[in-house]
What does this fold into?
Amino acid sequence: EFLNNYQLPLPTGQSPAVQNFGSDITVYQDIALVTDFPLGNADGRVHIYRFSSSWSYETTLIGEKAGDSFAAAMALTSQVGSRYLLIVSALLANTRGSAYIYLSNGTSWRQICRADSPQSINQFGSCVAINQTTAVSGVSSVGRLYSLTGNSITQ
It folds into this structure.
């Protein structure tokens, strides 16, 4: 029944022709994430939807700076109950890349961590994954993976 023909409503004032709405989609339990990967020097966005008999728009996460390629990659996992952890990358943040981790308490989302590229490595966050205790960020330009656990980054 979940696969019925549901349409995600566009956020108010959002036009898919302006950005790249739907460039990446992730669905996990009752949450759907839809990216608006930036074209040119625009802001990248992650639109968050929740399902309860139909899809409803919840909020939008926006990168810190236009042109930082926020929403290049994302991954979602659940914790206890309706709490979720989300990792979103920004390939050009600080010119080398950053990964942002957000926590949902069931009604709102807040950033709890930002990990910047270690050393002088470009494109940190070209791919990301997360589980309940560890997030992983890849660097495609050098073929490396970094683990983000607590406040430390290890290769």
The mean pLDDT is 76.
